[in-house]
Amino acid sequence: MPAAPTSLSILVIDENRLRAAVIEDGLRDAGYDNITVIHDVAGIARRIADIKPDVIVIDLENPNRDMLENMFQLSRAVQRPIAMFVDRSDQAAIEAAVDAGVSAYVVDGLKRERVKPILDMAISRFNAFARMAHELQEARSELENRKLIDRAKGILMSTRGLSEADAYALLRKTAMNQNRKLSEIAESLITAAGLLAPPEDR
Q1: Could you read off the pLDDT of 1-56 as tens digits, one per residue?
Q2: What is the pTM of this model?
Q3: DSSP symbols for 70-104
Q4: Phi, psi for 109 (deg, rounded to 5)
Q5: Rounded distance, CA 75 to CA 134, Å?
Q6: What phi and psi, each to the nearest 5 degrees, are found at residue 193?
Q7: With contact defined as beta carbons under 8 Å apart, do 32 and 54 qualify?
Q8: Cβ distance 87 to 61 under 8 Å?
């Protein structure tokens, strides 16, 4: 995320032009000048794809359940920090907003001077969640790779009579010689072993 506020591209979605102007003024006061305002939510996903904003601010006056659900689906899809302002809400809607990945869900809080701190919070919260998701994905990937390597070692140990250390050393040496990841070599070996196994063992 760019450090300088002025470099951030911000999309404001608000059907009410007066309220949109309040948000836009608050953003400009805070030094943001790359702002796009949309008043019509029809076809919004396509517009977001065209604009490619860094941050999205959504302001909904009296959102009904369907409108909220549409906005929550949008926030799941766009993978951007989203600050959502609503006039009133209930616990279920707040929980749904969190589940959908809305970075800041503000009830009855649209004041010009509050726009920047809320935007800052949305960005930092989004970045924290993104880091956590990335770390979780890396941990899962690491676990999968370890399982593949263990299976490949098992195949080498049983077919070539190697110790576990020797089997691992052979996998590692092969990976280095072929300039490939250890897990890729392991996966290739498992696939080959499956193809070469007698039909009843597959």
Answers
A1: 444 445 788 888 888 888 888 888 888 888 888 888 888 777 777 888 888 888 88
A2: 0.54
A3: HHHHHHHHH-S-EEEEES---HHHHHHHHHHT-SE
A4: -135, 25
A5: 18
A6: -65, -40
A7: no
A8: yes
